[in-house]
Automatic annotation (TrEMBL):
It comes from the Bacteria. Residues 1-23 form the signal peptide. It comes from Terriglobus roseus. InterPro entries: DUF2911 (IPR021314). Keywords: Signal. This is DUF2911 domain-containing protein.
Length: 187
């Protein structure tokens, strides 16, 4: 009986030390093989008109057989609009994104998905991981138009399209969802 208690105590001690080391960053979880592709690689989307430019840097997750909208990306819950690090939006000129004035600079993009209209938020707080929200630092939010893709898109993308001399559209596409917002260059 004493040996059984000793074994249980030793096992608990080992578990406690392992958890402590992980919490302090002393252990890595599931290291990636050198040269292996990321599960959600970093991607960029860019648009420019006469020197005015906009760039988005985001992690691009894939469906991998999962139901995305409403499950992996829950409705009415803030989403980082990609995977891993928060999505970064950068512009060298003032913009109108929908009805929101966005001064030149860098912002974190966050979306609030729903079955109907989505909301796009520009946040001045940079460098967060995942879905951390700093609402006090929000520049503002705008509604996005929702459409359906003709066929499912495996990897999430952010794209600029329908570019004219005055602006473009920013599209977020994944599964069969395409949400977009007009972007007007004020230069």
């Amino acid at each position: 009986m004493k040996i059984k208690k000793l074994v249980v105590a030793a096992a608990l001690l080992c578990c406690g030390l392992s958890l402590s080391a992980m919490a302090q960053g002393g252990m890595e979880m599931a290291p990636q093989k050198p040269g292996a592709p990321l599960a959600s690689p970093r991607k960029q989307a860019e648009a420019s008109i006469n020197g005015a430019a906009v760039k988005v840097d985001y992690g691009a997750p894939s469906m991998r057989g999962r139901k995305i909208m409403g499950e992996v990306v829950p409705y009415t819950t803030w989403w980082r609009t990609g995977a891993n690090e928060a999505t970064l939006f950068e512009t060298n000129t003032d913009l109108m994104v929908g009805s929101l004035h966005v001064p030149a600079g860098k912002y974190t993009l966050v979306t609030l998905p729903s079955e109907g209209e989505w909301q796009l938020v520009f946040c001045k707080h940079l460098g967060q991981w995942g879905t951390d929200r700093f609402e006090a630092d929000d520049l503002g939010k705008v509604p996005m138009t929702k459409a359906s893709l003709a066929s499912p898109q495996e990897m999430m993308s952010i794209e600029f399209g329908n570019t004219t001399a005055k602006g473009t559209e920013m599209h977020v596409k994944w599964e069969t969802t395409d949400v977009w917002v007009p972007v007007t260059f004020m230069k």
